[in-house]
Design brief:
disordered N terminus; Four Helix Bundle (Hemerythrin (Met), subunit A); globular; about 270 residues; 9 helices; mainly alpha
């Protein structure tokens, strides 16, 4: 009876560290981050739609810019993280599929946010310019950047081994990220109807209402939290997909070995 109790106690103590394993801790962190992210997005909705005042010139349409600026910021961030992760994957000292999965997850999220950027920009353009689309330098280069990363995602799905996927997509990511400065400075490089930066550019004399500036900063924080939360979740899904692919390959090889062994046996039926 004493031995049984001791064994159960040992099992309980052995289960203790499992409850605080890195995987469990990571899950708790992701869950807590999700709660904070949802709270931040609800706060952004309240300030963007209710508390923040209308603009003197743009009127109520200024509320679209809280989404437009926040999403384009996250898209830029996502594409830069994709490039950094791709470089880490190619570097011999840090070669790991984890970096490749982070790059892929970040690119997927960047494409989604860039699509939201183009959509919000089209709505704002309809209200400000009278049309959803103009062949403007900023708008056109942004659309080209979006298409480039859609192509990056297509390259990731071409097939081959996971290492081959990582190498070819990393090269594309390092080239594609060079488009971001072109998009950002397109307003200065070419004659553009798109307005220049209002807050980040020190040469502009723009005064924002306190609540408008706060809402804009809140949008950057809230959308960044969405990005981080989404990357954590998405790269875990990609890791599970890679694990399933590995098991599928192992199963296929085992079946092939079994077939070869059966064919080698005398009197085997084909």
């Amino acid at each position: 009876m004493v031995n049984v109790t001791t064994t159960a106690s040992s099992s309980t103590s052995a289960a203790g560290p499992a409850a605080t394993s890195p995987t469990h801790a990571g899950t708790r962190f992701t869950r807590a981050l999700g709660i904070i992210t949802i709270a931040a997005m609800l706060s952004l909705a309240a300030f963007g739609l209710v508390f923040s005042p209308a603009d003197v010139v743009q009127g109520e349409s200024v509320r679209i810019l809280y989404i437009h600026v926040g999403t384009v910021w996250v898209a830029y961030l996502a594409f830069v993280i994709t490039a950094v992760s791709s470089a880490a994957f190619l570097w011999k000292r840090t070669t790991s599929l984890t970096w490749d999965r982070i790059a892929g997850a970040s690119a997927e999220i960047g494409v989604a946010f860039m699509a939201l950027t183009l959509f919000a920009g089209a709505l704002w353009g309809r209200l400000s310019w009278g049309t959803f689309w103009v062949w403007d330098a900023r708008v056109t280069t942004t659309a080209f950047l979006f298409i480039t990363y859609v192509g990056y995602l297509a390259v990731r799905g071409l097939g081959g081994s996971q290492q081959q996927r990582g190498r070819r997509s990393a090269v594309v990511a390092l080239l594609a990220v060079l488009e971001i400065p072109l998009v950002h400075f397109s307003v200065k490089l070419w004659r553009s109807v798109h307005q220049d930066a209002s807050v980040a550019d020190r040469t502009t004399n723009v005064t924002l209402d306190g609540l408008m500036l706060f809402t804009l900063m809140l949008a950057l924080v809230a959308f960044t939290l969405v990005y981080v939360w989404w990357v954590l979740l998405r790269q875990r899904v990609l890791a599970m997909q890679d694990a399933l692919d590995d098991k599928g390959l192992d199963y296929a090889l085992a079946e092939r070995r079994r077939e070869v062994t059966a064919d080698a046996l005398p009197g085997s039926v084909r």
